Amino acid sequence: MAEYIVSAAKKMNSITEELLKLAKIRHIDTYEATIINMTEIVENAVNRINNATFSKGCQIKLPQKWPKLTGNAIWVEEVWYNLVSNACKYGGSIIELDWINEGAYLKFWVRDSGKGLSKEEQSQLFSKFSRIHDFDTKVKGHGLGLSIVQRIVEKQGGKIWVESKLEQGCTFFFTMPIANITHSPS
């Protein structure tokens, strides 16, 4: 009984922390953007993932070079952490991160080698409390991560989406404006 109470308390604490992240981001109207060293940000996110139990057997492939851009470094690290950790949890053993310059935006992606998602599952991904893989009890979560990531990306003037076919893995894309020194989200 005591184990159950401790487990339930930890779960409630975790949900509360995720909801607080979501609420903080929602109520920020402006923020000071700084230069982001994407090499450092991605390295920090990958190190956090490598220290987690779910990362066992997950091979992360990185590009040779990352760009620098402006934005909120803490938020961008959270985007990478969430997308890559989800890929390790759900997406198979090989995870590829990369980027391309698309003029006014940089487009980043996380591609996995997992089972992929149906169109219906894709349409639910960014909704709060949406857990597509509820059947997998080994994977912990509350269905808030991707809704937080979406809010972070959009607050910084970018977009996020997924492309997937069943049995062919998923690719999560997000964009960030190249020049974004002081940003006032709409």
Please provide a written account of the structure.
The protein is of the alpha+beta class. The protein is 39% helix and 24% strand. Residues 181-186 have low confidence and may be disordered. It starts with a helix and ends with a strand. The chain has one domain: 2-Layer Sandwich (Heat Shock Protein 90), CATH 3.30.565. The chain has a five-stranded mixed beta sheet. It has a two-stranded antiparallel sheet with strand order 1-9. A two-stranded antiparallel sheet has the order 2-4. It has five helices and nine strands. It has helices at 2-26, 38-50, 73-90, 119-124, 145-155; strands at 31-32, 34-37, 59-61, 68-71, 94-102, 105-112, 160-164, 170-177, 182-183.
What do we call the CATH topology?
Answer: Heat Shock Protein 90
CATH superfamily: Histidine kinase-like ATPase, C-terminal domain
Range of strand content: 15-25%
- Secondary-structure element sequence? HEEHEEHEEHHEEE
Indicate the radius of gyration in whole angstroms: 17 Å
- What spatial order of strands do you see in the largest sheet? 3-5-6-8-7
CATH architecture grouping: 2-Layer Sandwich
* Backbone structural class: alpha+beta
What CATH first level would be assigned?
Alpha Beta
Summarize this structure briefly.
The protein is of the alpha+beta class. The protein has one domain (2-183): Heat Shock Protein 90 (2-Layer Sandwich). The protein has helices at 2-26, 38-50, 73-90, 119-124, 145-155; strands at 31-32, 34-37, 59-61, 68-71, 94-102, 105-112, 160-164, 170-177, 182-183.
SSE inventory with pairings:
Layout: H1 2-26, E1 31-32, E2 34-37, H2 38-50, E3 59-61, E4 68-71, H3 73-90, E5 94-102, E6 105-112, H4 119-124, H5 145-155, E7 160-164, E8 170-177, E9 182-183
Parallel strand pairs: 3-5
Antiparallel strand pairs: 1-9, 2-4, 5-6, 6-8, 7-8
Helix pairs in contact: 1-5, 2-3, 3-5
